[in-house]
Amino acid sequence: xxxxxxxxxxxxxxxxxxxxxxxxxxxxxxxxxxxxxxxxxxxxxxxxxxxxxxxxxxxxxxxxxxxxxxxxxxxxxxxxxxxxxxxxxxxxxxxxxxxxxxxxxxxxxxxxxxxxxxxxxxxxxxxxxxxxxxxx
Length: 136
Fold this sequence. Notes:
mainly alpha, Cytochrome Bc1 Complex, Chain D, domain 2, 7 helices, Cyt_c-like_dom_sf, metal-binding, metal ion binding
């Protein structure tokens, strides 16, 4: 009978100690080990799209005109005229920068039309920041 009591007591202590260790791991600021989630800024997302799947960089350089107007010029004109760059990218607004070359840009809307509003807004965020000199 004494052996059963000792075994029962040992099991009780073991159960209690395992539960408190489990709680300590869960209580570390509400973060569970192995569930790291990185947030990516709109600037970084926009930069990735601009230089990646959007292929905007092929025609638009930051500081100078290339095939299309430079990002600095685009941002300056859109801000001066209080215009909506995202609306233009969605083809909901007329071109206001270099409109005579709109036909060239129009061919790229095949790529852009599949972008989400969030992606288009991220491109705008990147362009505004890059137009103001931010690179990282």
